[in-house]
Predict the 3D structure of the following.
Amino acid sequence: MSEGRQLRLLALHGYRQSERRFHQRTGALRKALRGHAELVALSAPHAVPEAGGDDDDDPPRGWWFSGPGTFEAGEAAAAPAGLEESLSAVAAALAERGPFDGLLGFSQGAALAAMVCALRARGDRRFQPVAFAILVAGFASRAPAHGHFYREPIALPSLHVVGDADAVIAASLSRELARRFVEPVLLTHPGGHFVPAAAPQKKVYLDFLGRFRPAQGQAEPLAAGAV
């Protein structure tokens, strides 16, 4: 065990975001977790095409597409594209930028993180460092090609953050994803499509993270009665 090391979470941004954009938008959360967990953002491998008016030096990115260069969370895409490259990018980041203990995903990044959790629970060694996940505004992919991720309950500790007023990813979709996990922890907030970090949410985050301790690059659940 690395004494004194805080937990490290690989952070997966939403569709049309990037590593830099997500870092900027999670300032309040990073402050709330200071001393307990560090967030390390990763950019998705796919640039979103025809994103006019965006910063050419930091183009918006996505983890996969439901149509040619497009993405809709509710679409049952017949030919989704790009997921394997994104899974490989996450695996490479875990190996090269670690140690990591868990994942934090937002929106499409949360959907991807859930897929990583499913593979990790099945014993995929690429994702062995992942001991838990915090999934904000997550959803289960509707693409039939992705159905295998949800065929059995995902046996990995998870915290699901649901915005009751989320107009992008409906709360019902995030709750549906939570039900795909074994013993999920649910955190609801009255806001919309963002990562909440006010005092009530901070307490839940810290309580959840307190179940784990960093050890040799992988978080281990605390034994009963441990502090």
Observations:
- Residues 11 and 32 are 15 Å apart (CA to CA).
- The beta strands are 7-12, 37-42, 46-47, 61-62, 102-106, 133-136, 158-163, 185-189, 212-215, 218-221.
- The radius of gyration is 16 Å.
- Confidence is low (pLDDT under 50) at residues 222-227.
